[in-house]
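$ fold --in a.seq
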Amino acid sequence: MDRYELRRLDYSLTEDHEAIQEAYKQFFKTHCSIETVRAAEASGFDKSLWERLCAMGATTMALPELVGGDGATLVDLTLVAEEVGRSLAPVPWIDHVCAARLLARLGAVDSDVVNGKQIAALDPQHDSVSGTRLIPAGSVADQILIRDGQDVVRLTFATRPAKVDNIGRLPMAWVDPAADSRTVVASGANALAEYQRALDEWRVLMGAALVGLVEETMTIAAEFAKTRYTLGVPISTLQAISHPLANMAITVQGGRNLARRAAWFLDNEPDERPELAPSAFVFMAEEASKAATMAVHIQGGLGVSAEAAATAYLVRARGWALAGGDPGVSAKYIAEIVAAREGAK
């Protein structure tokens, strides 16, 4: 088995990967406490954190060197996404990098988007939506990419759309395609294929973010269980507690491996396993809310209090999974891919 074939099966991290992972873990640990997350809930966005993240190179890393980026792989980006989810970071990093990468592939990205001075966003719903649509980063984006028939269109607004309240505490807004400015970026089958790739990348990165979210909420619950006693023993020794915690660990590892595998195939063999990207999203969309709910249950009355960190993770586990629309639509998309492949045999 040659090195390339081995890499299709082995998604362990290299030293460079581990360095990226550690750098962003420390960044968010330093600059994104749970207090920072709480303070940003009204707007869903922390401008200072975003500027610090951009200064670290989190936006430029995602783009090709030809447009002034650093040429990171999608696997690299899943490592950052995990840390975004682990810290509940109130920044639209996933939406921005997916939109920016799409603009780069279509030859329409500018330097302000590359370095994050202008925030780009896209409509991550799988089905083309007509009329006003709900965009996860719509209230903070300077430009929004949507699919309109056979066109990929860039929208800009003199005044950004108003944020709407949502369970995921995202900077979400209803966006009217009849914007102050509409520019057709690209048209035709190739443009739509590139937009679909952007949706797949969004699903992979959101799946990875939910992995980080679940791992952190598992850690919170496990630490609580080790210090809470009943009948003279830590509750972590009870099967009703230890088994759900073990299930969370399985979810984390399974989701992580699936997201990294999907990212590798998107980068290297995008036509070989197209069902992996939506599968990573659907799996974590379903499992994240279950895991976060169990973490709250483990902490009992404390867990359901508004001040508890576990509650902050729970609402985002449910809300982030719905940011791209109904995960069931992505599940149907997976079925269509698999059915088409089986029918072609």
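$ fold --in b.seq
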Amino acid sequence: MKFFEDVELQKIPYRFSYRKITTEDYKGFYHCHQGMEFLYVLQGTGQIVVNRKVYLIQPGTFLYLQPYQLHHIQVDVHPDAPYERTIIALEPSIFEHYFAAFPQLNDYFQHLWKNELEDQVLQQMDNMSFINQLFQHHHTVFSSYQHDAKQQNFALLMLQVFQFLYAKGFGDPIENGLHPQRQLHYSEKIMNWLEGHYSEEISLDKLAEHMHISKYYVSRIFKQETGSTLMEYILARRIKQACLLLNTSNKGIEQISIEVGMNNFPYFCQAFKKLVGTTPMKYRKKLR
């Protein structure tokens, strides 16, 4: 279920989830996000696989994920050992102009956004660290702002986060533009394409043509890189969007089913309950 927590960044270009707590089973699997994402862990232990490296997750772990970067998180969770974290995410193209007045910081922002990175994790940061106090401060004042002011306040938060990371030497700060741009894996390119097509009837032929590989190889490489089938991912992506619409709109549930590309309403309800753990109606009522 936790796969569906992401905000659709095309609709809201940022996310700030302060000290989010999970006390139930946390099943991890390979997925990606369309924007830049930062994760700061306050409680919980486990591991994350990203860029073919395995990192330990523990209190004080600070992790950065690039757009469409495939990753797999596993956390040991039960009521006496919750998973508590702060998550910030942004669509970088929307916030790029905020960095323009700070040339050095802008170069670093572009580097973390687009280039190959040697390391993407800081460990052993305590609850009194600068970054945790920064999150706490912005969480305190964030709710008092209107929409436009919220985005500006979030931009200020991100400028401070990037300044902090640059001072730490995080991600091997760029020198003389020598770092190569990150090349997406096939599965990441496929997920990128699906962002614009998941609500349609998916054509493997069109996807394969876009990828310049055979449709048989599309299915095989996706399963090989992510551990799940292409159709499992498409279903999860559609249900994720349905969760967002149930939370942010007053559209009828059957209308939402059609809008996310699932015209068979009984199957939509069945799949929703299987993946989310409750019916669409109960999910909506719980949120309101």
